[in-house]
Amino acid sequence: MKIATFNVNGINTRLPAVLAWLGRERPDVACLQELKAAHEAFPRQAIEAAGYGVVWHGQKAWNGVAILARDAQPVEVRRGLPGDPGDAQSRYLEAEVGGVLVGCLYLPNGNPQPGPKFDYKLAWFDRLIAHAQRLWDSGAPVVLAGDYNVVPTDEDIYDPRSWRKDALLQPESRERYRRLLDQGWTDSLRQAFGDRRVYTFWDYFRNRWERDAGLRIDHLLLSAPLAQRLETAGVDRWVRGEPRPSDHAPAWVQLGAARRTRRRTAK
To answer: Which keywords are on file for this protein (predicted)?
Structure first.
């Protein structure tokens, strides 16, 4: 099973690129973020024509998340992150696909910081940590995939010096990401790449794509049952080099088949 995550930066603006990516790479599951489309404006027919069932949670002009499944229909489990009934931002969606529980998330950016946007980022992160702990404790095969808007370490950015004041690199943001990993989740890209640098985001400004001045902010965290099935992971960099691209490239994991457990027979 191939599971991917992609911040599309506007699903209708980038639809040709998204469809080209789906057609070429054929992920079994695709988590999309930053749809920037009202729920009724999501291009469902085009996605389904490409061979994907879909559930989505839209929001006019901002945010928005979706889970796609190739030749299948995702079964929605949760819409919205628990912990704050008054939070109306479309940032979290959870669905079951092929025996795997998929959490698609778009964590707040938090800039400018300090300020209310950064406070919201940290509060949202705390809610994610609490929910992730419940998912971990369930023992289910779970992937938490999306744009986390956090650069985990200085090894995940081309040069941290000009980003030190950015919300993505703040100690509070990084500490919360570490708390997630401390629950036991496997950071699949880091697991696959080891000490090698790998990026998923290149800003539009200052020729950052051309200079490969990137950041790693899109992550796929695996629970223990899925970490055992991890074969490889990667980034579809070619998507970032296409005309009118998103500033992100899709990241993905390839999982092997689930292990079968032998049934004990009565004597």
So the answer is: Hydrolase, Magnesium, Manganese, Metal-binding
